[in-house]
Amino acid sequence: QVQLVESGGGLVQTGGSLRLSCAASGSTFRQSDFGWYRQAPGEQRELIATISSGGSTDYKDFVKGRFTISRDNAKNTVYLQMNSLKPEDTAVYYCNLGQLRGSYYYPGRGANYWGQGTQVTVSS
To answer: What is d(CA 11, CA 32) in angstroms, rounded to the nearest whole number?
Structure first.
């Protein structure tokens, strides 16, 4: 059974950087696709970046050029490097184990396919 644990959130000033980590348990990490989501207060959870089992990445326009998703198969960990942070990036960030079919990411639906979330707060 998969388990995802995020870390690395915190408080940062506008223009600052953070690197989030998502440590995954289980033996299928190398064959798995992952997505990073975020949810701001009062908003729906939104997808921001994906990475395939082969390392291909995709980003939503509002983070493109500022955020980088990567993976380390030896450590069973997915990362989200966030640079040039803005106050509107403030949210709880979640990683998800799902499936990419073409360019569409299908999130894993069970609770164990999501991490517990990590808070990112960007002050102005």
So the answer is: 30
